Amino acid sequence: MKLNIATVGLAHPFEVGFDDSENLLNTTSKALKEVGVDCISTDVVMHDLDTVKKAAQVLKTKEFDLLMICIATWSEDHHLLDLLSYVDKPVILRAYPARETGSLCCAHQIGAVFRDIGKTYEFIYGDADSIECAEETKKIATAYALKTVMSRTRVGAIGGRVKGMTEIAYDEFSIKQKLGARVVNLDEKEMTEKVAAMSDAEAEKILQEKKNILSPCKISSSKESMLESIKYYAALKELAKEYDLQALSVKCYTTYMGKVCLGYSLLSEEGIVGSCEGDVTNALTMKLMYELSGKPINNTDLLYLDEKENSILFAHCGSSGFSISEGDIELCPVRLAESGVCTKFLVKPGKVTAVNICGHGDTFRLAVMVGEAIPCSMEFPGNPVKIKFEKSVFDINKEIMNNGIGHHWMVAYGDYTEQLKYFCKINDILMYEI
Fold first, then answer.
1. pTM of the predicted structure, to 2 decimals
2. Closest-CA residue to 236 (of 209, 266, 257, 208)
């Protein structure tokens, strides 16, 4: 996910520090680039209407998620109001330590104006070359970039949701309002008809094309099941292309158990996420976390507390991406149904973030918990991940129950708590840090 910030200066010619305002702008922009932010500098310090229009002219030709105002000195605040009449983007007010420039008091002044006109903003204070400030800015930029990505995300809901799981009933209005994504509802026939139309010879050809991924795996599923599963992979991929989908959710339990799992594993390596049991909201949670981590997301249930070890076992049937595996991979019949093909393996250790999104309207909520994925055995057939926490797992369990958090947890490698806090803030999503 690309992080795009545009920077523009603000200063007053009469104030101490005006002569250094261009240097502050350039130094701030350079620090952002050093931490991996694609910084678009206007190279303009606004101080009158002409410079405001010059900055606006540059910004109108660029694509960015966030506008940083580098406040070098005290300045007349209407210049910024004029700029926003041309380019109305989310704003970071950036102030600098200095006794005589008035940078900080100008930021406070603008903050008060923004509060009264209903314009939200972020605030960063510190030296222009501060990497700490740049890193904090990067976290904010990530949330806004994520908002942009999610607003362009389309999730395919194939066949609705599993009966008996009222908790995962998806609210299209809340999804659009809070996450920005659009749900594309598809009849499962659109999937099955594509499967039926594909010959075994065509499926065999795709299996050969995926040989570099599949051949190292131990295969205990039948040849018939492998051919069927690869047909479902092809059908899902075709639907994703046809409807421009970045996420999928199939009502797999129980009709399609073991039929779509391998397809999900393959598609996750191609950047298309897929959730189980028709849980559309958690397909979007997977997309959210995929954009943050850049790696396949492990779709899991919370299954078992080990209070002695202070760990929790998370697992599902086996449809995660191959690249998060640790060791051998087996393509085998799915549990319970004992048919089809699921991708069974143990996952890599490391810092992980587990996220659940559920709810409707005002109850729409995101829960996050961070821990360490530790080595475990195949304690549940699928892609089990055992997470060790600093906080008592008994207390974690109570918090989940007390706040009505759902049972599906999407597990990503890395700690993204701060980025999620900003994302929830700007999207007005209730967040529980468990």
1. 0.94
2. 266
